[in-house]
Amino acid sequence: MGACQSFREMCDRTKNTNIRFSLPAVCVVWQSAMIILFGVFIRYDEEADAHWVEHRKANNISSDIENDFYFRYPSFQDVHVMIFVGFGFLMTFLRRYSFGGVGFNFLIAAFGLQWALLMQGWFHSLDYTDGKIKIGVESLINADFCVAGCLIAYGALLGKVSPVQLLVLTLFGITLYAVEEFIILDLIHARDAGGSMVIHTFGAYYGLSISWMLYRPNLDQSSSLQRSVYHSDVFAMIGTLFLWMFWPSFNSAIADHGDGQHRAAINTYLSLAATVLTTFAVSSLFQKHGKLDMVHIQNSTLAGGVAVGTAAEFMLMPYGSLIVGFCCGIVSTLGYIYLTPFLEKYLKIQDTCGIHNLHAMPGVIGGIVGAITAAAASETVYGHEGLINTFDFEGEFKYMVPTVQGGHQAGGLCVALCFGIGGGIFVGAILRLPIWGDPADDNCFDDEPYWEVPEDEESVPPMLQYNNHFPNKDVVESNFTVEQDARTRS
Amino acid sequence: MGACQSFREMCDRTKNTNIRFSLPAVCVVWQSAMIILFGVFIRYDEEADAHWVEHRKANNISSDIENDFYFRYPSFQDVHVMIFVGFGFLMTFLRRYSFGGVGFNFLIAAFGLQWALLMQGWFHSLDYTDGKIKIGVESLINADFCVAGCLIAYGALLGKVSPVQLLVLTLFGITLYAVEEFIILDLIHARDAGGSMVIHTFGAYYGLSISWMLYRPNLDQSSSLQRSVYHSDVFAMIGTLFLWMFWPSFNSAIADHGDGQHRAAINTYLSLAATVLTTFAVSSLFQKHGKLDMVHIQNSTLAGGVAVGTAAEFMLMPYGSLIVGFCCGIVSTLGYIYLTPFLEKYLKIQDTCGIHNLHAMPGVIGGIVGAITAAAASETVYGHEGLINTFDFEGEFKYMVPTVQGGHQAGGLCVALCFGIGGGIFVGAILRLPIWGDPADDNCFDDEPYWEVPEDEESVPPMLQYNNHFPNKDVVESNFTVEQDARTRS
Amino acid sequence: MGACQSFREMCDRTKNTNIRFSLPAVCVVWQSAMIILFGVFIRYDEEADAHWVEHRKANNISSDIENDFYFRYPSFQDVHVMIFVGFGFLMTFLRRYSFGGVGFNFLIAAFGLQWALLMQGWFHSLDYTDGKIKIGVESLINADFCVAGCLIAYGALLGKVSPVQLLVLTLFGITLYAVEEFIILDLIHARDAGGSMVIHTFGAYYGLSISWMLYRPNLDQSSSLQRSVYHSDVFAMIGTLFLWMFWPSFNSAIADHGDGQHRAAINTYLSLAATVLTTFAVSSLFQKHGKLDMVHIQNSTLAGGVAVGTAAEFMLMPYGSLIVGFCCGIVSTLGYIYLTPFLEKYLKIQDTCGIHNLHAMPGVIGGIVGAITAAAASETVYGHEGLINTFDFEGEFKYMVPTVQGGHQAGGLCVALCFGIGGGIFVGAILRLPIWGDPADDNCFDDEPYWEVPEDEESVPPMLQYNNHFPNKDVVESNFTVEQDARTRS
């Protein structure tokens, strides 16, 4: 076995993680393409354009405060925090992959949102009078949402891919997202304000399928690099809490003005609260001595937000939100305990962050809850105008009824699943090409291959750091030995 | 002494911190109760209900932007951050209790806000036409406020109680809060937008009384576990800063629309700024060599926000806010230097986070400042309508005058004190029962009893991690061995 | 060389870093002065005053939601987070200067904002009817902006100055800022909503000039204290991300209501996204093995926000923003690689955080971009009213045209440069006086002189911490020895 292992290591060593040319090339070329495409296609919408004053007067809008900016900008900023700090820090839990977790998250989100503005713009906000995409604050929120799908996928692959692979994953992920979103929201006419289907189900299955395609049979599961240290777990809690706190903004960010946003925030707030209690319960119950596991607290507490994504803007009722949260805390935590090892062992899906438990299952639950809530809607509960507004029964969907809407919702869920799995297999095949600079098995979950990692001199006691009079400087640098010498000598 | 110690240790060992059944049981049963009670009692208010469109038209509200959501949601999110990240990270300062600090804070806040919606709802927003509680964004803010009282109490007990005890503390704390709040705000008609009395005074004395009831005479004060490490102090600064920055939102969140919220934010901003300077001054002046103490910077800088809680919405004047902040920085820092050791030694009150200095004293000061400011109010300063709006001199309080209002404010402060102390003694007595799984003295301030703590390999210097050639593996450390084997064999 | 070094050390030892009297004296006296000046000068403006109800009715303002509070408060809170958490945590990257980074940032910001309210008030919002400064939420934002200039300057001096020096730097910095801001915005009539010139160019050259005056020729550049450790780099990413995410709020916070704020947010969002990609590209391309450098990721990714500060509210167009961001990522990262060492070696400017790359160059670029964009403005693009509103062509500037405005913008940039460099040399001369308690060369970049630093016991392996049975307790406390004994013995 020793020979076998050293052979494997040798093979791995031949893996080239040098991305000195590929990463800069991809970044610069793609960013240049963005500039050209933005120049050709993208302009401000009427609420962000300097012509707004005239537009306002022409439309009898009495005050600047009715600019959509004031309806949505606070929520946008909360969503922005979730994308960069929330997802970013949630991925810092590994002891030696915090740079990669938060740094690559930053990179792919910054690229993804530009590409998302274009892709979503072509499908949703193309102004046919002049062939331009008109963007405003709602476009920015949608771009952030779109990016979220790819960041979820990154969760499954954390520590096992190169930044170039991540950029490729993002390019295709955003493209697929924009298409499935168009099909689900516009063609099928499903509603999905918080993206249980469009974002979470799609993103999670996209990531899991790629992980399945990139299966690493020899990855050392007992490696200490796959575990956390005390402080990295605390860092990850920053991510968890910002996701948890701002999820009500996520689910309400693009809901209808007025009661739509208001209700979506309340439902999400309640669902998440319930999830926390059942997560703590299951985490303690299934652990030896009843000790809580940080992995569950960091992740499963968020499942309730995923699962009310679709139904948050509906009249789910406060107790309905609590029930959804209650169930998802249990399902998600049990997923970490039983399902993640099962997926790895039998289905060959390595899921670093456990996105199957945090996004895939709760996303599917969210789609189903949305379908049921939509099907059960009635004029008694929503009011005549309320029903039309909430489900957008206008234009070509004027004669739609709630029960049929429920079916459409279910259809949307299937589309998200198909795009996730199909797209993931396709993109996974591309990412298997041996040109992307991905790390060897032994270098997985380690920042070393892609980052200048500072030497950690904490272990040298302060006094030595400041007053050393050792003749041989090199020895002093190799920090421990000297101290030890000094002590054994004394 | 060695024998004595080992005897004590043996006794402690008999303490059972296994919460494998009690914690899950409490979480699941209470959460189920919440679902039932929410089902029976809680509905959306008219601004979050799908009937809003009709309501809006019937009431001649010209735009969706006048939905209370847009007045209060940004402040709500700031308050939410204070509760979960602010309080949570402020409690991560202990070297080995960061999981418990941020994690249990998370748990009890998530439970507390649900129970608070019910308790506050019964007292404040019960709709007598249908017997339902109607909730909106203001209810969510009030629930977060209510939770803050319990989190303050947790500060005194940090590291010395089990999560089950904390949930019991929260259940009773929320209940007491709702009652005292009803008495103070509705019956006595005191004003307390930022909760100097209702939240801080009550919460702090509630926690201190419980701590007095749970006094641990043999707690090793010299234990290194009661101190911080470098990084845990930096983590705690995250909590400090988010509390400090968002305190203007806290004090203005439920103030009157328009000038009320505006003024409350300005006053709090100024008071907090002044507190920072006097905290730094006193911290440096009373320390050997003038070195600053992180404990003061982390906590006392916040005292100014507590102390303008009541008066923030009044015409306290900018210089008035500065004066309050100036004094509180001094009082609070001196409290940490002189009062906390005194309380522990002579009054047998162990106060882990020093909430007496951060919440109790500034809260009482805030109540007094509020009473004086109210008594000094006049139509010259407030204007006729301004006076009525600010102090709500309407309905049965139509003939109230400022001087009398000042007396009512003082009365409110007394009620908060009584509920805090009385409630704390009562709940403390319950928590002394030997059934809650609290830790032994030796296990206090340690995450070990309730959390799966990752082994920390940081202590092994990098070169050893990869190239160690020590003959005796066990000494080098268990978790390493595997990796090492692999390498030496190859 | 050993003799030389020990002589230098001896000289340094004579440096007195004891600030036990100077720091408290400055804090208390200055804070008292603030209280008096606020008492004499500062009152609430009409939107924060209790007379608002009457004002609203008299001015036919239909709803409380049109109070400026609701237009600007969410942006204000984002800016507030940037000042305290953004700048604060960005400066925690040094391994042993995190307390000083985040703590002194806190201190000088809290003092600076008070002084800024006064200084800016005298120049901008003095009500000549009663001789009072009237403050509202926009004043708070402007005060935070003013503070940002001084915090940028602190970045160049990080780790090399005492808190008393920092307070002096802030006092003069705020004063200079208010004067140059008055000249640039009011006299020259340049526009600078995001402060590329007024904040960044001024602040950066102010700090660099002070650093040049305080040059320390013997500072040990190889000192490990000038480097980061793994966790301190992750802490710094908290600062980076909050600055990055909230920069759209920074540039739009005081822009015109409606389309002005909306457009400024979109432009900043896009520019920052482009910067991330080129920063990653250059960082990888110029590093051996293509490894990314955390210093670049932490800092250069922000350059795009600086550089659209002036032009963000103009019709820069989405692709224009991307181009600005694209260039600044490259310029800024190259600055870190080539210019910072050059500045230190040949110009004797020691720039700890590299503010020349993050603020100075992008600030100047921002000023130029602003001038060009303004000069290119036309009624076709802006509309008649849009042009007047955006550039404020009203009152005495009624007959201004865009091309001339471009010249004025360029003039503004020159003023900012002159004030920065001139002011910095002047203040630097004052700070060279040997009375401020600044640290010796050997104590630079170390929290030890000004903070009670907790002993770090992390190096003791967990098993020793909890089960030690060593006879000699003192030995156990001096953490390393035991572990080592165990090793050498075995």
TrEMBL record, chains A, B, C:
TM spans (from-to): 21-42, 79-97, 104-123, 135-157, 164-185, 197-215, 227-246, 266-286, 319-339, 410-431
Protein name in UniProt: Rh family, C glycoprotein b
Protein localization: Cell membrane
Annotated family: Belongs to the ammonium transporter (TC 2.A.49) family. Rh subfamily.
Keywords: Ammonia transport, Cell membrane, Glycoprotein, Membrane, Transmembrane, Transmembrane helix, Transport
Keyword Acyltransferase: no
Organism of origin: Kryptolebias marmoratus
InterPro entries: Ammonium/urea_transptr, NH4_transpt_AmtB-like_dom, RhesusRHD
GO molecular function, one term: ammonium channel activity
Cellular component annotations (GO), alphabetically ordered: plasma membrane
Predominant cellular place of this UniProt entry's protein: membrane
Residues annotated as domain Ammonium transporter AmtB-like: 67-435
Free-text function comment from the UniProt entry: Functions as an ammonia transporter. May play a role in the elimination of ammonia in the gill.
GO BP annotation list: ammonium homeostasis
Membrane topology designation: Multi-pass membrane protein
